[in-house]
Amino acid sequence: MNTRETLSPWQLAERAHAMNPSAIREILKVTERPGILNFAGGLPSPETFPVEAMHAACAAVLGEDLNVARASLQYASSEGLPELRQWVAAQMAKQGAHISPDQVLITTGSQQGLDLIAKVLLDKGSRMLVESPTYLGALQAFTPMQPSIESVESDFGGVSAPALRKALEKGERPRFIYLLPNFQNPTGRTMDEARRNDVIAVCREFGLPIVEDNPYGELWFESQPPAPLLARWPEGVLYLGSFSKILAPGLRLGYVIAPPELYPKLLQAKQAADLHTPGFNQRVVAEVIKDGFLDRHVPTIRDRYHQQRDAMLAALQRELGDTGAEWTRPVGGMFIWVRLPEGLIAKDLLPAAVDAGMAFVPGAPFYAENADPRTLRLSFVTSTPEQIDRGMAALAKVVRGAGR
Ligand code: PMP
């Protein structure tokens, strides 16, 4: 029996028991050996960070006008800096989504948006739907609320509208479905115009709200993706955006666009979480983007990632083309999703891949249920074409060795 001395004074909340260490972080530890060609991470290329523009903007914010400098260092409003909220509304209008700046909540990364949404919309046992596979960080944000997360069958074009209908015809109405229409993390896939319309039609029919997560939408290679779901059903969509992939993730700046009826609750959750998003970062970013900087900067990221994607697709075809492996051909974003030949398990292959000099992330943790163990994710944005060539050759060697 436990004595008073040996008994821990701490008792965890039920929701803490539901939290898991990120499976990916554990895996990434293995992959961070020096000298490894790392395709496992989810980081943007640091070479795209606009250091000079950030430097100049910091200097401007802390410059001659002492009032601006002081305001940037003071507590700020929970909703976010008005200039940024207006910028978000103007950007969305260009994509056909006409919203008011009053609907924009600036968050500490869009990851915080996911956490606030979970707190506001999910109870223990609430039914909710995700794509298969889906963004692991969203699963991490949702699970502490202990919802019942169901994955809806999806293909290379995203979530399947007939499968969604089937899921909605049985059981209670889910609180929402979480969707990533553009260059999805982890698969790189994109929902085309027809798929978006089909999915929206089903959601409207059943009154199923949508959480649309779009951190990669600006990173298209040849043509802009179809209009966001928000533009198609403004009352039924909560939209998440981010500055992480177009400026820098270290700023921790994202946003939620909420229908007016939900906004006050999200704002209250935001106040409880951290009062407001760092005001200094918001002012610096407002300063950086005010003269159309992103219109010049983002195309340079697109060009770079486009070349890297081309290099990876070519290397995959050359090295793995005859092995029976399959992969996605993303038209934007940062990731390619590979399905290994039958009989291979990505997780089991990773140690040999690391020994051969390259690392990927096994796909299984990205599934809420029914994981496909043959899948893995490759990021193409932090390696040069030459590193990509060597990395895919190493992967092919391991795949061939395991298949023998
Ligand atoms: N959603 C998706 C799909 C992501 O891939 C990420 C970042 N990996 C986020 C949200 C969170 O991004 P941030 O908090 O940096 O805006």
Automatic annotation (TrEMBL):
Domain Aminotransferase class I/classII large: 66-395
GO MF terms, alphabetically ordered: transaminase activity
Keywords, comma-separated and alphabetical: Aminotransferase, Pyridoxal phosphate, Transferase
Keyword Iron: no
Cofactor: pyridoxal 5'-phosphate
Stored Gene3D superfamilies: Aspartate Aminotransferase, domain 1 (3.90.1150.10), Type I PLP-dependent aspartate aminotransferase-like (Major domain) (3.40.640.10)
Domain of life: Bacteria
InterPro entries referenced in this protein's UniProt entry, alphabetically: Aminotransferase_I/II_large, Class-I_PLP-dep_aminotransf, PyrdxlP-dep_Trfase, PyrdxlP-dep_Trfase_major, PyrdxlP-dep_Trfase_small
One Pfam family from the record: Aminotran_1_2
PANTHER family noted in UniProt: AMINOTRANSFERASE, KYNURENINE_ALPHA-AMINOADIPATE AMINOTRANSFERASE, MITOCHONDRIAL
This protein's name: PLP-dependent aminotransferase family protein
Organism: Ottowia flava
